[in-house]
Amino acid sequence: MNFRGPMVAGMVLAIAISGVYAAEPLKSGPEVGSKKISPFHPLNVTGSAAGKPQCLV
């Protein structure tokens, strides 16, 4: 039996409905004037500095 058509239609319907019922609009990044949550501490996992925090830039 071929269930691909109804399955795709159901997935498209579910995605369309979920967009309508989103709790709040999406936001990108912190709000203007807000404080930083925490600093960024990179941790190397490969190379000569593996396991050590070190900025690669």
Can you describe what's shown?
With 57 residues, this protein is mainly alpha-helical. It has a domain at 1-25. It is built from 1 helix and no strands. It is flat, with a radius of gyration of 22 Å. The model has no long low-confidence stretch (mean pLDDT 78).
- Amino-to-carboxy terminus distance: 56 Å
Query: What is the typical, i.e. mean, pLDDT?
Result: 78
Model regions low in confidence, pLDDT < 50 over at least 5 residues:
none
Radius of gyration: 22 Å
Largest sheet: none
- Count every helix, treating DSSP H or I runs of 4 or more residues as helices: 1
- How large a portion of the residues is in β-strands, by DSSP E? under 5%
User: Based on CA inertia axes, which overall geometry fits?
Assistant: flat
- Name the helix and strand elements from N-terminus to C-terminus, one letter apiece: H
Q: Percent range for helical residues?
A: 25-40%
Task: Compose a concise summary of this entry.
The protein is mainly alpha-helical and 57 residues long. The chain has one helix at 4-20. The model has no long low-confidence stretch (mean pLDDT 78).
